[in-house]
Amino acid sequence: MARDRTAMQLERLKQEREQTLLELGRLREALKTEVDPDADEGDPDLVEREKVMALVQGLERKLELIDYALRQAREGTYGICERCGEPIDPARLEAMPEATLCIKCKAIVERQARVSSAAPQF
Hints:
The protein has helices at residues 2-31, 44-75, 90-95, 103-118. The protein is mainly α. The protein has one domain (2-118): DksA, coiled-coil domain (Four Helix Bundle (Hemerythrin (Met), subunit A)). Helix 1 runs antiparallel to helix 2. 11% of the residues are buried.
């Protein structure tokens, strides 16, 4: 049963990877159009281009996470929390198959990141 679930999650990861690659290709193609070099900051074409660039960056990061999860599967560590070594809840993997941390560890890491970013920089 667990093996079937993992196989389904990995298949979903592969499908998400293909969809992400297709979307990246489409967005990168959109970036090939020329923008007027004399355009000011409020120019709609320039604003749209910046939005597309942000989407590309987000999708590239997603692709990295998917590829990492697929490598974990090949190594036999898929579904194991990288921080505590415990199995990641199947419901979490169902919702987010590229997850590498269990809910508890993810919350700890996010809390630490918030504290670090709120600390005064000297």
